[in-house]
């Protein structure tokens, strides 16, 4: 029993010791809530610290040694919490308010989320609160207004929203207020004017609206005011002229209007003035010249008018931007002097005129000059090389003439030269080759000529060359490969000839190669395989020939290829190596062979045009993978087979052109599922079967051309659902039945062709509602019957009407005479009768032939036609019979007359020979033949006609006749 009690006591003792040992760390962790360390550890627990910045925040370490803390002199309290840029995430703990001695909180440039705790308003000793560049959200708590000792408040670059509260005006000690790059809205509170010690006010990149308050002038120590990229409106307050300490004023990209206040000229300390992107109007006030400390002035993108009135008083001005206004005149003569500090002058997009402002040549420190998009004219000055420090010269889109002066080669620092859109002529001076820093050379849209100098390939820094739309001739310099940094080579629309230099393959950084619209020839060099960065190449409208190098298959980054209108032959497989293709156009070449199914690997393909080649085989079923394909043109090839059903997955089809091939089978119903289809041309193939009614679902269809196939059956009434249709061409098929009246729903039709089918029944009068019909209405060569609807006279825009070769009856409606736009009409080969409208007299006779009884010009007049009531117009067969009978009768008569004349001539010849043997005179012989009396005459004539009797009397007479007619 005793032993048992001892054992029990021992166990209790051990448990007590264990409990004490366990309890010790619990008490230590809990700490003393009256100490800053206690609350700092709780704040730490709400933060994520991937970089271990807070690792030494532990009771094992002295509080004042913790990272980011500054203690008071007695080391008892925390005065500064600075964790800027520590990679922290999580939220800001409200328990920061427990650190009542805090004077500075800097948790900027982290990834903190959540809202700003309103409890921070309890930190009555706080002087600096920096929470900018986080991901904080919510509204600015009004409790911030209780921090009356606050001098710095920077909480911008967050996702804060809501308004700037007027209570901000209570922060009477505030020197720096940063609320930029948030989502704040509403107006700038008037109470801002109470902050008389405010040095910097940064409100840019928000959604603030309303007026700039006049009360802002109360911030008499303000040096920096930026409110750019908001929605502020109204005038710039004149009271801003009282901010004598202001050095930076940035109100860019708002909706400020009115004129620039002349009071701004009183801001004698102003160094930076940016008012660009507003709606300011009026002229530039001359008082701006008083800003002698001004370094940068930007008034661009406003509605300013008048002349430039600025002068050399602004000794410190380095950057002047007046672009995109309506300024007139030129640069003032006294704008630049020898002591000018001007480095950047941007005057583009105005109405400035005159010759190149020679005054600028005095600004020897100029680095950038932009006079583009004005009305400057005259020749470029040879003295341009006075601007020795010039790096960027933009003179584009003016009316400069003359040549590019050779002195431009002396601008050794020049990096960009924009001269496009002028009237510059002549050659590129070889001196350009001295510009070793030249990176961009744009000379396009001028009238320059001559060859491209080989010296240009010495400009080793060149990255972009654009000579589009000039008259450069000759060949591309064979040393082009020396431009190893070249990324863009655009020589389109010139007169260049010759072959592509193989050295082009050395331009391994080339991304865009545009050589279209020239006279280049030959084959592509195999060195193209080295252009691995190439993503755009256009060679169309040249005379390139031969097969493509197989090495082109290695160019995996190609996105846009246009080789159309050349003479390339062979397979297109070498162009199928890139899976990045978005445009491939090989139209009008002589490519042959099948279409490679590998093209389907370019899932981003938008346009595929292979028309006018000699391609064979089938349309690859893999093309169903083209989910973005908008334009498919395989027309004018020898492609056969049926349309693969996989194409039904190409839901972006807007243009489907497969005409003039050997395609067969039925037109698939799945075409009706292509809701974006705007142009469908399957004409001149071997399609058969009926026209699917599902086509009526293609609500965006503008053109449907199925002519020259073997389609049969009726035109489905669902065709009327194509209310956007402009062109419908179904001619030269085997369609039958009547024309569906529902076609009247296609109100936008301007071309309708249904000819050369087997359509029957009357012409639907509903066609008269298609008042946009203009190009043609062709119903010819069918079996249409009945009368021509008089309502067709409503088609006043119609230019061509063909109703020939039908079974139409009745009169030509006089209402058709209102079709004054008609310049082609054919009503022939019908059963029409009656008077033709007088306005149709201008058409040729063939327009009306082979009808039953039409009259009026250009046919016979109707009065002649009706002179006999029994008189009828003969049928076509009767007319033909009469003509044949007349011709036959005339031929017989001619032959008989010819026979008689020959007989008379032969008899006369016999009598003449016989009489000459008796020695009688010619007169006697004539009297004997014709006789003096009737009896003798008769006998003589009997003798004349009786040729056979005479032949019996004298055998020699028979031989004297040329033709033996006996």
From TrEMBL:
GO biological process, one term: defense response
A Pfam family hit: LRRNT_2
Compartments in which it is found: Membrane
Keywords: Glycoprotein, Kinase, Leucine-rich repeat, Membrane, Receptor, Repeat, Signal, Transferase, Transmembrane, Transmembrane helix
Record-annotated membrane-spanning stretches: 879-902
Predominant subcellular localization, coarse grouping: membrane
A Gene Ontology molecular function term of the record: kinase activity
Organism domain of life: Eukaryota
Organism, scientific name: Heracleum sosnowskyi
Domain Leucine-rich repeat-containing N-terminal plant-type stretches: 35-72
Name of the protein in question: LRR receptor-like serine/threonine-protein kinase GSO1
InterPro entries associated with the record: Leu-rich_rpt, Leu-rich_rpt_typical-subtyp, LRR_dom_sf, LRR_N_plant-typ, LRR_R13L4/SHOC2-like
Domain named Disease resistance R13L4/SHOC-2-like LRR: residues: 167-275, 695-832
Lipid bilayer topology: Single-pass membrane protein
Signal peptide range in chain numbering: 1-30
PROSITE patterns reported in the protein's UniProt record: LRR (PS51450)
GO cellular component terms attached to this protein's record: membrane
């Amino acid at each position: 029993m005793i032993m048992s009690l001892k054992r029990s006591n021992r166990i209790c003792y051990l448990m007590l010791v264990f409990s004490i040992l366990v309890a010790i760390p619990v008490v230590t962790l809990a700490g003393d809530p009256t100490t800053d360390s206690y609350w700092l550890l709780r704040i730490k627990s709400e933060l994520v610290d991937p970089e271990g910045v807070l690792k030494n925040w532990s009771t094992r370490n002295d509080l004042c040694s913790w990272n980011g803390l500054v203690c008071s002199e007695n080391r008892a309290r925390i005065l500064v919490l600075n964790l800027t840029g520590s990679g922290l995430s999580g939220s800001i703990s409200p328990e920061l308010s427990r650190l009542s001695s805090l004077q500075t909180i800097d948790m900027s440039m982290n990834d903190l989320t959540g809202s700003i705790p309103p409890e921070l308003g309890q930190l009555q000793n706080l002087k600096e609160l920096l929470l900018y560049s986080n991901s904080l959200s919510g509204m600015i708590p009004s409790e911030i207004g209780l921090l009356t000792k606050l001098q710095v408040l920077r909480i911008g670059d967050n996702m804060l929203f809501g308004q700037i509260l007027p209570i901000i005006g209570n922060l009477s000690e505030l020197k720096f207020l940063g609320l930029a790059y948030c989502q704040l809205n509403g107006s700038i509170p008037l109470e801002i004017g109470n902050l008389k010690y405010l040095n910097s006010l940064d409100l840019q990149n928000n959604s603030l609206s309303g007026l700039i308050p006049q009360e802002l002038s109360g911030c008499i120590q303000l040096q920096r005011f930026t409110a750019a990229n908001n929605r502020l409106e109204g005038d710039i307050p004149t009271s801003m002229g009282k901010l004598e300490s202001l050095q930076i004023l940035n109100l860019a990209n708002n909706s400020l209007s009115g004129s620039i206040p002349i009071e701004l000229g009183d801001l004698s300390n102003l160094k930076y003035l940016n008012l660009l992107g507003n709606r300011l109007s009026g002229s530039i006030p001359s008082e701006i010249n008083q800003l002698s400390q001004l370094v940068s002035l930007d008034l661009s993108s406003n509605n300013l008018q008048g002349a430039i009135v600025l002068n050399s008083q602004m000794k410190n001005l380095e950057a002047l931007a007046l672009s995109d206004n309506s300024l007139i005149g030129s640069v003032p003569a006294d704008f630049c002097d020898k002591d000018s500090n001007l480095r950047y002058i941007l005057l583009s997009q105005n109405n400035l005129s005159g010759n190149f402002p020679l005054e600028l040549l005095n600004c020897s420190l100029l680095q950038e000059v932009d006079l583009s998009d004005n009305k400057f004219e005259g020749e470029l000055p040879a003295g341009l090389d006075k601007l020795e420090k010039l790096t960027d010269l933009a003179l584009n889109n003016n009316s400069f003439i003359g040549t590019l002066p050779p002195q431009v080669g002396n601008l050794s620092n020049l990096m960009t030269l924009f001269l496009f859109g002028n009237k510059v002529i002549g050659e590129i001076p070889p001196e350009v080759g001295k510009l070793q820093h030249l990176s961009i050379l744009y000379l396009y849209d001028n009238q320059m000529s001559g060859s491209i100098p080989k010296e240009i390939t010495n400009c080793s820094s060149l990255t972009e060359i654009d000579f589009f739309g000039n008259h450069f001739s000759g060949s591309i310099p064979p040393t082009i490969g020396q431009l190893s940094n070249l990324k863009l080579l655009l020589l389109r629309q010139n007169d260049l000839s010759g072959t592509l230099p193989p050295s082009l393959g050395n331009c391994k950084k080339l991304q865009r190669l545009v050589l279209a619209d020239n006279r280049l020839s030959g084959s592509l060099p195999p060195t193209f395989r080295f252009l691995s960065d190439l993503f755009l190449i256009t060679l169309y409208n040249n005379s390139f020939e031969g097969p493509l190098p197989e090495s082109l298959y290695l160019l995996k980054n190609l996105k846009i290829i246009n080789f159309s209108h050349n003479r390339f032959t062979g397979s297109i497989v070498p162009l199928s190596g890139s899976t990045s293709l978005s445009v491939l156009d090989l139209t009008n070449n002589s490519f042959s062979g099948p279409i490679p199914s590998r093209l389907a690997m370019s899932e981003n393909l938008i346009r595929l045009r292979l028309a006018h080649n000699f391609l064979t085989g089938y349309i690859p079923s893999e093309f169903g993978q083209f989910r973005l394909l908008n334009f498919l043109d395989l027309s004018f090839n020898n492609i056969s087979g049926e349309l693969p059903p996989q194409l039904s997955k190409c839901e972006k089809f807007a243009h489907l052109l497969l005409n003039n091939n050997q395609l067969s089978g039925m037109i698939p119903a799945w075409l009706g599922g292509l809701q974006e289809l705007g142009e469908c041309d399957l004409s001149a193939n071997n399609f058969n079967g009926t026209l699917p009614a599902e086509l009526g679902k293609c609500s965006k269809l503008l053109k449907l051309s199925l002519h020259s196939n073997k389609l049969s059956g009726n035109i489905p009434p669902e065709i009327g659902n194509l209310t956007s249709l402009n062109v419908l061409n179904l001619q030269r098929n085997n369609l039958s039945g009547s024309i569906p009246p529902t076609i009247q729903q296609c109100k936008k039709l301007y071309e309708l062709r249904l000819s050369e089918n087997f359509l029957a029944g009357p012409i639907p009068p509903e066609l008269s509602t298609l008042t946009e019909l203009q190009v043609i209405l062709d119903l010819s060569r069918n079996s249409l019957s009945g009368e021509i609807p008089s309502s067709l006279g409503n088609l006043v825009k119609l230019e061509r009407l063909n109703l020939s070769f039908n079974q139409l009856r009745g009169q030509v409606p006089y209402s058709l005479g209102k079709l004054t736009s008609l310049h082609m009409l054919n009503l022939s080969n019908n059963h029409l009768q009656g008077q033709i409208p007088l306005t149709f007299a201008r058409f040729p006779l063939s327009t009306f032939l082979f009808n039953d009884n039409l009259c009026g010009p250009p046919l016979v007049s109707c009065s002649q036609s009706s002179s006999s009531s029994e008189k009828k117009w003969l049928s076509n067969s009767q007319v033909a019979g009469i003509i044949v009978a007349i011709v036959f009768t005339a031929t017989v008569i001619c032959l008989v007359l010819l026979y008689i004349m020959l007989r008379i001539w032969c008899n006369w010849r016999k009598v003449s020979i016989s009489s000459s043997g008796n020695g009688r005179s010619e007169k006697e012989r004539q009297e004997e033949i014709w006789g003096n009396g009737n009896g003798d005459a008769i006998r003589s004539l009997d003798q004349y006609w009786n040729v056979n009797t005479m032949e019996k009397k004298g055998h020699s007479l028979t031989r004297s006749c040329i033709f033996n007619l006996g």
